[in-house]
Amino acid sequence: MTATAADHTPLPENDTAKESHPGDANTAAPEPTDENVWLEEIHGDEPLAWVREQNARTEDLLEDAGYAALEAGILEVLDSTDRIAMVNKRGDFYYNFWKDRENPKGLWRRTTWESYLNEEPEWDVLLDVDALAAAEGEEWVFHGAGFLRPAEGEPHRLAMISLSPDGGDANRHREFDVETRTFVDPAAGGFDIPTAKGHTSWLDADTLLVSSTAEDLPKTSSSYARTAVKLRRGESLAQAGRIFEIPEDHMLAMVAHDPTPGFERTFAVDYIDFYNRTTWLLRDGEWIAIDVPTDVNISAHRDWLLFRPQQDWDVDGTVYPAGSLLAAVFEGHLAGGRSFVVLFEPDESTSLQSWSWTRDYLLLNLLRDVSSEIRVLDPSSADSSGAWAATVLDACPPLHDVNAYAVDDEDEAAGDEAGGNDYWLVATGFTTPTTLTRGTLSQGEVTYTLDAGRDGGVASRHAVVKSSPSFFNDSAYEVQQHFAVSADGTRVPYFQVASKDLVLDGQNPTQLSGYGGFEVARTPAYSGTVGRAWLERRTEDAAIQDSSETHSRGGVYVVANIRGGGEYGPSWHRAALKEKRHRAFEDFAAVAQDLISRGVTSRHRLGCVGGSNGGLLVGNMLTQYPELFGAVSCGVPLLDMRRYTRLSAGASWIAEYGDPDVPEEWEYIRTFSPYHLLRDGVEYPETFIWTATSDDRVGPVQARKMAARMQAMGIPNVWFHEALEGGHAGASDNRQAASQQARSQQFLWRALAGK
Question: GO BP, one example (predicted)?
Fold first, then answer.
């Protein structure tokens, strides 16, 4: 396990609508009248005819004379051949997946380290996805590759490649031989798992561990894989022996094998819900549950087992706070020991975001008031209390996002060629193009600070390898961090990116972005798209207050770090969970009010944008705070919170929002269900709702129904667009992504920058 997200369960892979609910229908909360249920037939003729009509109407509005240049400018950023080709090291090669104008579906390719250091590396193309799609008549979207770890001294050769037929989460998993550049023929025993949401892991050269709903394997009530099988070469899924199973009302089953020599282990995970799970170890043919509370996340690396509790964890009278990171010897914990080394403990301003093991060291990626800090820990250098020596990596400028992760912790080569303790460092900021650095960790001298704290033990040598180009005049802009005060007195940070000559007259077109859910942090990130499509776009028609003089100005871009996210760890997330969801909306509204009170913008110049859970956020801005915004761009959103559990993958998010079929929970859920909060006689902001037919995570129907209801109510300036492909991302190639982003940016600019 080379890189581990601190707490974030990957979004489970399944798109089938929920057909039943575990609750008793006789006690379920009543369902409000829904005149738009007919739009829930995702591929129905009538709903798609409605979609086509809406798309044509929206395109007529947005695609004016300037739109083509806007879209082309965004596409130039996405297709740029000067951007960094990020790589993953496997054996002697560095692998990359690349899209550009000539290869819209992309190339899976590899190169050597020596070649990668060149300005224009020589790439060996392994799979041309455009050619594959043309040959097979399927609009394949590449979703990654997982290699079989070869025997010592042998090259990495076999990989399971994940291909989506439409950009959604459902994938077909096919065995690929990188030496022959071909898929292994199923007739000759090659693995080929039918399209479904699921997961594969190599057990050995002739065996896969598979969790899937393909070929009628059972589903949970959330419609994800309920079982895992051991699939031998030449078998079908139906023939494979089932090795792991979870209750139907749990969320997802997954099995994976860790092939690290000397530490080979097979794990199974029962994802009970989004934040609770039980992890099992296969030993002597039996599954052994690793004894921790279900809300304590665990990961293994060689001798070590790491623990991150999502709530305060009391172990024999010692309380470890939520968001801390603990370590124990793997076998000692399995034998019943409960002795932990505290590797990280959060404070009011600092949280752990992720961690990554090199062969011998542990990298911690932290946020301190939403700016990065990286610590390197050495388990081989511990003091008398067992605390590991820690070094702060000097690589994190203020108001930037910097992440460190291992290059290849499996690299066991000897001497100077060893890469097992090498790490990548990826740094970015709102006005700082991304840089990629490679470093090497080694033992250094332990130093002691004046307060007797240990501050050292690990030395680092690192150098920049690649730098992204600048796509806009970033030197003309400055980044500021401000804090708004929410309704309950909580200080909420936000980033503001604006021209250095910003005039605080309330007339600046301002785009406010947020998310606020699932413990996902919004951090500084360079975006050529935002730079070109918003910051550098100029208007001449905004008059300075109390003057007839016009002032040419660009847009202001703001990112809010509201509760529900992960900027300050689990406590920040849980502060807006379920019945406390309103805290996230109050935080976002407080940021909007602060921007207005500071003179950055005004109601008619302020717009907000969000996608997925962020779509729920801005949907609530639309319905609960319409007086604060002139425009709302709402993408791939959750909006109908009464039926969300029955639509696409919605049932898996009950742990985040609550269960609307339970009357007591519907009582608070209905207070943040935008579809049910619309009222006559309200002056709503201009609204653009966008989604994708192939989104099999949130699905397109909530967006459809919201737009249809608003239009039927006679609310003016409500626009809708639905892409046919692209899944939850809304785009499966760069051109689709450019179109999607251009439509949102064009809508907001038209609504906010006019007279």
Answer: proteolysis
The pLDDT of 647-652, averaged and rounded, is 87
Count of domains observed in the chain: 2
Q: Is 437 helix (H, G, I), strand (E, B) or coil?
A: strand
DSSP 544: P
pLDDT digits (tens, 9 = 90+) for 206-227: 999 999 999 999 998 888 899 9
Whether residue 130 sits in one domain with residue 55: no
Q: Tokens for 290? A: 């690793």
Listed residues 196, 226, 253: the one ending a domain: 196
- Rounded CA separation 24/196 (Å): 29
Domain-embedded: residue 274: no
pLDDT in tens, 609-629: 999 999 999 999 999 999 999
> Which amino acid makes up residue 623?
T
Q: Is residue 372 part of a domain?
A: no
Q: Output the average pLDDT for the chain.
A: 91
Residue 549 clears pLDDT 60, i.e. is over it: no
For range 196-200, the mean pLDDT = 94
Show the tokens assigned to 700. Answer: 């397109």
Q: How confident is the model at residue 754 (pLDDT cuts 50, 70, 90)?
A: confident
DSSP secondary structure code for residue 468 in this structure? P
- Identify the DSSP state of 294: T
Contact predicate 696/43, CB 8 Å: no
d(CA 593, CA 628): 7
489: alpha, beta or left, given left = phi > 0 and alpha = psi -120 to 50?
left
Domain membership flag for residue 296: no
pTM above 0.85, yes or no: yes
Kind of pairing, strands 107-111 and 93-98? antiparallel
Q: Are residues 105 and 60 in the same domain?
A: no
How many CB atoms sit inside 10 A of residue 295's CB?
19
Q: Which domain holds residue 186?
A: 81-148+150-196
The answer on 726 and 637 residing in a single domain is yes
Q: Which residues are catalytic?
A: 612, 728
Containing H/E element for 51? Answer: helix 45-62
Ranked by mean pLDDT, which of 166-180, 457-471, 670-684 comes out on top?
Answer: 670-684
In this structure, are residues 325 and 352 in contact, taking their beta carbons and an 8 Å threshold? yes
CB atoms within 10 A of CB 334: 15
